[in-house]
Amino acid sequence: MTNILAINAGSSSLKFKLFLHDENKEEAINLVSKGTISEITSESSSFSAKIISSDTKTTKSLQTITHEKAFNHIISYLLETIIKSKDQIKYIVHRVVHGATETQEFILRSDPTTPRALSKLDSLSELAPLHNHVSVLIIKSCLKELPNSTNYAFFDTLFHQSIPPHVYTYALPFEKAKQKRIRKYGFHGISHSYVTKIAANYLGIDWNDDDTKFISLHLGSGASVCAVKGGKSINTTMGLTPLEGLPGATRSGSIDPSAIFHLSSKARKCEESHHSVEKQFHLTEAESILNHDSGFKGLCGLSNFGDITKSIHNATEGNENQERAKLTFNIFVNRIVNYIGSYFVELEGNISALIFTGGIGENSKELRESVTDKVECLGFPKVDKEKNENVEGSFKKGDDVVEISNRTKGKSRVLVVETNEEKEMVNQLIAKI
Prior knowledge:
single chain; alpha/beta; Nucleotidyltransferase, domain 5; 2 domains; eight-stranded mixed beta sheet; six-stranded mixed beta sheet; 14 strands; globular
């Protein structure tokens, strides 16, 4: 039996899942514990975790901590509750947002080649300043605290390396863009890979067959759409950075590039951010506005999509707040369905399923219904209201796929799949060891 620790580092959070794998049975993977440390570097940091078998839960407020201290806290928790020594953790898998054009995972051990590999990962921090440097810090902590474990870094960009040149190339001066590595990379690849495999299994079709086609909607505070054919990404909405494509909680999504210069006279100036991770990279005023002050937050002052839908239906609020919440909701739906239409054409129709996933995709029944109503003209069925309203309950019962439509004609289905990036990394690891 092998303990595998999965780490998912965010700009201000650190999630973990501990899995137990029976090496004699390839598919025998059991989740033992999971938890999150949120609001890292703030005064309101908190830790929450649970042991799956007993449903024992732990919650704790923490003083302002760094990502390294957050990782140490997780290891201390595991030693106190589940494992007897650090050496019991044989493998650690890490979600790393940006891997540029890497075509395989990084393997990192306590050996002389590791500093060079980490330096390569850290060099991509200019492309993903909120994430990559944090991942490097966590990997360094793992190498220090668990020197006998083997670390695997899995990249969100890896799944999208199958995107063809005419899709990933921007219409910019060619040689200069190539020199500076400016192209579409795509993100959420681990999630898109996982949910389309789960959907194919649910439908009883071969994920790798060219007739298997999915449009995957990973909708959360960061959101992206992906067109998947034969188990390969052929297009996705995020680009050089996670900023391109759909709007998010605080990101603008795709806009006219000139808009930012009309919005802010200081857009060209580099200013040191108040965020500790960003201080090293000196984001321009433009990048700060587009990444932190735009999206849902910029439109209506709310960054949580659940709060936006509540505001729409809350009659006690002022009319202006409701109208701006409705505008935000409608903008998000509009951008989503525009990409669905585009990818429907790119995949040449006959879509196996439209997949909703991510925090919003899995939890917003209003959004799912609005989107499917708009794309009915493409052959997607409308949602069954009862099924759509009971998605969360189905997940709580242990289902990882919920079909929210009654399929009466045509091929396409509408599914909600609970994403699990940590399990996808573990699955990929087991396939390699």
